[in-house]
Amino acid sequence: MGLPALEFSDSFLDSPDFRERLKCHEIELDRTNKFIKELIKDGNMLISALKNLSAAVQKFSQSLQDFQFECIGDAETDDEINIAQSFKEFSQLLNTVEEERRRLIQNADDVLITPLEKFRKEQIGAAKEGKKKFDKETEKYYTVLEKHLSLSSRKKESLLQEADTQINKERQIFYDASLEYVFKIQEVQERKKFEFVEPLLAFLQGLFTFYHEGYELAHEFDPYKQQLQFNLQNTRNNFESTRQEVENLMRRISSCSLEQFICTNDHLFSVKGPLGCTWSRHYCTYEKGTKMFTMSNSEFKSGGKQVLNMFKLKSCIRRRTDSIDKRFCFDIEVVERHGIITLQALSESNRRLWMEAMDGKEPVRATTQIGGVNSKVQRLMTSVFAPADMDLDPDTWDNKTITSGLKNYLRCLAEPLMTYRLHKDFIMAVKSDDQNYRVCAVHALVHKLPEKNKEMLDILIKHLHVVSTHSQKNLMTVSNLGVIFGPTLMRSQEETVAAMMNIKFQNIVVEILIENYDKVINKAICLSSGSRKSRGLYPPTLCLADADSECLQKQTLVPLLECQPNPFSPSGDTFSSSPSSTPMGSMESLSSHSSEQNSCSKTGSPSRTKHKASGSLCWTTPSPSSNGPKSPACTTSPDSSSKEDANKTDGEWEEALSTSPGDRKAKALFSCQAEHSHELSFPQGAHFSNVYPSVEPGWLQATYEGKTGLIPENYVAFF
């Protein structure tokens, strides 16, 4: 039951029942007062705990802010950059949350504690003061009343009248105190319904606002969270693709002999001739301290001169028997000339001594992580390189076998499809922070590949691009394809941990090729700054092909294998082929030996001019519907250049750039509007002075109208 009402008329009667009802109100008032005191105490503890929590979160946030990721290698992938930046993003998010919490804490005193203290002091305190006054006047009134009633009737009339006046006055004071007390105590009971509850509501409202802000922040954070999950999965995939290679390298290093040789002297055979089929004997020496390798001909005729060649060694790699039709071979790379020198030792132990003296490396071995059964893959490769036409039985040759055969073929080439010569250039290109520059640089490098390599790369990347468009079904996203084909199409000539750490960048090169197939393989592209773009989410499961998937279909991959040379030698379980069909012995091969001749034999061809995509970065204006970054505006297409400049060979361009700085002048074939401060804007026919090569591929440094900046190389003709 609730408290009984106190009637003002009962104040005059002052009955025991009135006193009992008044006592009920006083008990409730004391209980309310104690409750508010405890609530204020608990509120202060809560605020203190919130302050401590906020301080701890801020310290945690600062720790995240101060931590710096250090990755192996001289550059980081976009995924690694985003992961390294994630701690700062987390710190910023926590700081934003704590800003709202600090606002809650600062308002808590004004919203909760102060109003409760005020209610307790002003309202409950006033009621208690009213009780004290009421009790005092009660005692005084009844004391005076007792004295008044004890007066003798024999007193003088004037004294009795004075006593009556005094008692009436005391009675009135008592009644007033009683009425005020009754009014106040009931007022407090009514006031606590809102003045007590309102501060609690305001505090909870602030608390809910804080939680709501956290919800909103979580909602805004969700896209970044999903992107970060993608970056983490991508980095995990790269790690898994690199880990096995590094472990194998570690085992090989741990088993290497510690024997060191100061110098080595012996006879070696080296390959020569356009088809790589003639071997000649040389007497060779190697000085380990200076890394100088000397070759002198041992087969000179009587009266002939001895030819002495000295080279500084860059690297030495053992030649696998399945990559050349000779035993005891190894390759050396020297500083003085491009390409590889293949040497044959007199025996396996002799080769081992040379390899140890030159700090030789083991070649990268091909491994198939996902794919068909090895025996089926070997039978497929035997069928592909057999003289007779192969018959594709769908019950025999499943997708996994075909894709594994393709990967096995590409992995076992004497030189990777994208060549040793351009390997470091590709890696450096994708280490740039500028997304658009990466595409442009990869574009330029692709067109520096030997023609046969580029043709095969075109066929493969075109198909992988199609495969990636069906990633919702076959799970082969661009990222997954990069992880699979990055180590297949590219590999470092040196087998070191640092080289293994660059596998993730090999994957990025392949991702760029697939994502930008139309631009990189077939079209000219512009060089302009571009921001990083987010990648979509993808299922993390890796699956090269399913029985029902559309990826890597037989009708595309088997002809691709049939039209290429056999990289396998007769040794072991690999596949036999004639020496002329191997990459080392054929002009149609994909090795560096053929690439040198391919590139040199086409010097005067229009396909090698600067207006084609083979030697530099070219500009075209994108269509209005293009979603890509805006390229410099050109009033004339580069394809409409003069025949004189279009037929200029690489040698002529180099000759034009080899004059003294003061003599190098050029004329603009087309007009162009610069998009950056370091570029020059110029009209068609503009004359440039002090023209010389720039560090940017496809660009020149020149002076026009007193200003020096970059101009596109394929926009000018020298005079």
From TrEMBL:
Residues 661-719 form the SH3 domain. Residues 225-252 form a coiled coil. Residues 617-640 have a biased composition (Polar residues). It holds the Pfam family BAR_3. Residues 569-601 have a biased composition (Low complexity). GO terms for molecular function: GTPase activator activity. InterPro entries: AH/BAR_dom_sf (IPR027267), BAR_dom (IPR004148), GRAF_fam (IPR047234), PH-like_dom_sf (IPR011993), PH_domain (IPR001849), PH_GRAF (IPR047225), Rho_GTPase_activation_prot (IPR008936), RhoGAP_dom (IPR000198). Residues 569-662 are annotated as: Disordered. GO terms for cellular component: cytoplasm. The keyword Transferase does not apply. Residues 641-651 have a biased composition (Basic and acidic residues). Keywords: Coiled coil, GTPase activation, SH3 domain. One of its GO terms (biological process) is signal transduction. Residues 311-521 form the Rho-GAP domain. This is Rho GTPase activating protein 42a. It comes from Cyprinus carpio (Common carp).
